Each structure stands twice: as structure tokens, then as C-alpha cells.
């Protein structure tokens, strides 16, 4: 299962009060396309592996924790920016680490 999460935009003010709006279906379509492009190489190399896409509005950490009851493993990435910040987990990894219901792998 590949999980893609997004947060809705907040009110923005540019040259006066205006609200940034996105169509829900457009966000979902773009999310599915992003996931398909992201896993295309791995899917081609491992054609026998079946995968599904789960889309969720909200934070990535919350989406992963909510879905962590049934998988054997949750995998998240870490940007690993090097130096002192490279020693720290990202916010998603940190949150999932403390709340997931299954084993977790943080990959750089």
C-alpha cells in the first residue's frame, strides 16, 4: 500500500483578502499520478508485487499511523540533510515512530 497525504491550503492573502481553493477531485487525480510516477520503477522491477494507492487528506504522519494496524511494516523516508539535522528524524518519522502499531523502517 502506498499512502499519499496532503493538507488543504489555508487562507492566503495576496493583494487583499483571497482564499486559495483547490478542487478535491483535481487533488486526488494529481495525488494518484504522483504515486504512480513515484513507484513506476519499483513496480516495473517487481511486477509480481501488487500495490494499492491510499489517498488521505491530513498530515502524512496521521495517515500512516491510522493505517498501521494491518501492515507488516511501515516505511518512511528521511531527507537526511547532513550535519546536526542529519542526526535527527524528520517530523513524520518521529511521529510515526511513537504512534505506529507495527514495525517501522526509516530509509535515507
What's this entry about, in short?
The protein has 108 residues and is α/β, with parallel strands linked by helices. It has helices spanning 24-45, 60-66, 83-86, 91-99, and strands at residues 2-6, 11-13, 17-19, 53-57, 74-77, 104-107. A two-stranded parallel ribbon has the order 1-4.
Q: Topology of this structure?
A:
Elements: E1 2-6, E2 11-13, E3 17-19, H1 24-45, E4 53-57, H2 60-66, E5 74-77, H3 83-86, H4 91-99, E6 104-107
Parallel strand pairs: 1-4, 5-6
Antiparallel strand pairs: 2-3
Helix pairs in contact: 2-4
Index terms:
single chain; 108 residues; alpha/beta; Rossmann fold; 2 domains; two-stranded parallel ribbon; two-stranded antiparallel ribbon; 4 helices; 39% helix; globular
Describe the structure.
The chain is α/β, with parallel strands linked by helices. It has two domains: 1-58, no CATH class; 59-108, HUPs (Rossmann fold). Helices cover 39% and strands 22% of the residues. The chain has helices at 24-45, 60-66, 83-86, 91-99, and strands at 2-6, 11-13, 17-19, 53-57, 74-77, 104-107. The strands form three sheets. Strands 1-4 form a two-stranded parallel ribbon. The chain has a two-stranded antiparallel ribbon with strand order 2-3. Helix 2 (60-66) runs parallel beside helix 4. The mean pLDDT is 81.
Amino acid at each position: 500500500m502506498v499512502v499519499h497525504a496532503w493538507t488543504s491550503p489555508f487562507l492566503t492573502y495576496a493583494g487583499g483578502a483571497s482564499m486559495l481553493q483547490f478542487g478535491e477531485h483535481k487533488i486526488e487525480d494529481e495525488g494518484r499520478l504522483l504515486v504512480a510516477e513515484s513507484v513506476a520503477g519499483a513496480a516495473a522491477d517487481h511486477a509480481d508485487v501488487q500495490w494499492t494507492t491510499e489517498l488521505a487528506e491530513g498530515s502524512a504522519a496521521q495517515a500512516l499511523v491510522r493505517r498501521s494496524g494491518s501492515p507488516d511494516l511501515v516505511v518512511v523516508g528521511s531527507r537526511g540533510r547532513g550535519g546536526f539535522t542529519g542526526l535527527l528524524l524528520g517530523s513524520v518519522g518521529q511521529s510515526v515512530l511513537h504512534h505506529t502499531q507495527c514495525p517501522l523502517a526509516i530509509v535515507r
